[in-house]
Write a structure and sequence with these properties.
The chain is 40% helix and 10% strand. It is of the alpha/beta class and 123 residues long. It has one domain (5-120): Alpha-Beta Barrel (TIM Barrel), CATH 3.20.20.
Length: 123
């Protein structure tokens, strides 16, 4: 991917700001509540957070299935990277290689790349 200088400067500056890791809300049935997840992210962005990190350390990533990790990344992109692109998304994808297989990490990276965003993989 080639970035114009202004976009590259913006991406370099983003990690110098507050990075927020949204919690993954669960309903009484034990299932992730994706509507609430979107509201959590929207509230962060509305408060001025410019770097959202789904599947990070407070996102309950150890309890998420691969499909749920993919959905958490998609939820963050839909809210933060959607209309108006109000925040960057840096999704955690390398926390558990046994639970989040390479193809899912690749799918999450592709979701983010569609918005010009990046996936973090600390391998």
């Amino acid at each position: 991917m080639t970035l114009d200088p202004a976009t590259a400067d913006q991406l370099r500056a983003t990690p110098a700001t507050v990075a927020a890791v949204p919690v993954t809300p669960f309903g009484p049935d034990g299932q992730a509540d994706w509507d609430a997840h979107g509201r959590v992210i929207r509230r962060m962005v509305d408060a001025g957070v410019r770097l959202i990190t789904p599947n990070g350390n407070t996102g309950e990533f150890y309890a998420l299935t691969a499909a749920e990790a993919r959905r958490a990344a998609g939820s963050a992109v839909a809210v933060a990277g959607g209309a108006g692109h109000r925040a960057e998304v840096l999704a955690g994808v390398g926390h558990d290689r046994h639970r989040v297989p390479d193809e899912v990490r690749t799918q999450i990276a592709e979701i983010l790349a569609g918005w010009g965003l990046a996936a973090g993989d600390p391998r």
